[in-house]
Amino acid sequence: MIKNRLIPTLALAGATSLAAMLTPVAAKAITYTVNRSWSQSGNNASLVGTVDVPIGSYTIDSTGTPNPFTNVNLTLIVNGTPFTLDAADTSNISGTGQFLVNATSSTLTFNTNASGFSAATVRFLNSGNPFGNRQYEIGTFLDSSTFQLANLEGSIASPGFTRVVASVSLPVTFGTAQTAQQVPEPASLFGLGVLGTLGVGSTLKSKLKPSKSAEKETTKVG
Fold first, then answer.
1. 110 burial via Cβ count (<10 Å: 0-12, 13-18, 19+)
2. Out of 30, 104, 149, 220, which residue is the most buried by the measure of CB atoms under 10 Å away?
3. What's the pTM value of the predicted model, to 2 decimals?
């Protein structure tokens, strides 16, 4: 009777451990600190703040998807004047162009895959004034006068739609993680499952021993 009661318990423990190993860990967005600066023709610009992106590699195509930026909290400063940027626009990709985002537990890296007349950029802007004069853009641009591709970062800001543009080397580390988050390895989950199974096995063994002794005593009395 004892054995019959414990076998379902052992099976349940094994199933629970297996479920723990097979259940995927939900992706959590990492907050990356951004601190960039550039200048052009006496104009100075900088971009500081944070962006949140879940760990993973993302290829953004001409459909503008996926947009991995779950939160944007940036300040664009042009010639001493600050502008708030709180949204990411991933729709500025043409043809076969691709904008590549690689988010790890330590860094956020941008790169592009562009050729011919296909550009690939990501723009950070103010959601309350998306077409206004407060934007930052980075990636591979198509020069409309030379029809040549160029890797640039730049901003447009008031007064007078001041443009500050500079070359950028791709791939570029756009941000660094504020805190590195570790995800449990499958091996460690397996170890926990084995320990759980062994624990139930020990219980089964210890509870079965008295039953054998009881059988011997019954035999002697008879």
1. buried
2. 30
3. 0.69
